[in-house]
Amino acid sequence: MAKRSKAYLEAAAKIEAGKLYNAEEAAALAIETAGKKTNSTVEVALKLGVDPRKADQMIRGTVSLPHGTGKVARVIVFANGAAADAAREAGADEVGSDDLIAKVEAGWTDFDAAVATPDLMGKVGRLGKVLGPRNLMPNPKTGTVTMDTAKAVTDIKGGRIDFRIDKQSNLHFVIGKASFTQAQLAENLNAAMDEIVRLKPSTSKGKYLLKGAVATTFGPGIALDVASFS
Q1: For residue 3, what pLDDT is reported?
Q2: How does DSSP assign 61-114, residue by residue?
Q3: Using one digit for the tens of pLDDT, what is the confidence trace for 5-19?
Q4: Residue 230 pLDDT > 90, yes or no?
Q5: 78 and 100 in contact (C-beta within 8 Å)?
Q6: DSSP one-letter code for 58
Q7: Cβ(14)–Cβ(222) under 8 Å?
């Protein structure tokens, strides 16, 4: 087992063993236990009671956090003509079609989100091996395959996050930075949880939210009272 730093152990000592924390309590502890040298990212991990092998239980969605993520996302857009112009005006970091596709196909992934117009998805689809493993492939379900490229760029840069369940039925997503206030983190967490609860599939039987935790970068996990969100 890796040796924990003194700072980590001091932070962990502030978390009561066996206690489950609601959104406000978890937010306060995340700020209190965050490292002081950097503005740590605050993340959430959830375990869901669904079977991701079944198409109707593949939980995936987006939510616009009320206070953003604390980071301005880098967005690229695959588009031509007016849709490309609109994306540039909205602040897209890079816009293109065949040239941009070739650049990504060569392995460039220095961005946080990708948007594409429907007419280019036939070509963008061949980027699956590059974008798929990084959860960057444009998808109509997340609003990233659209002719309204300006809205997509504005939403993503404004604090919209995407989430998707993995093969082990886990969800991971960011809710902000340790520099946020307790209220900001709690409101972001509640907004994300509201959407995840809304997406509960009707075919899922039994408990949906099994367990969860909030943690800052390199910080200890803070167990969530997941029942308080449902």
Answers
A1: 67
A2: EEEE-TT--SS---EEEE--HHHHHHHHHTT-SEEESHHHHHHHHTT----SEE
A3: 788 888 899 999 999
A4: no
A5: yes
A6: -
A7: no
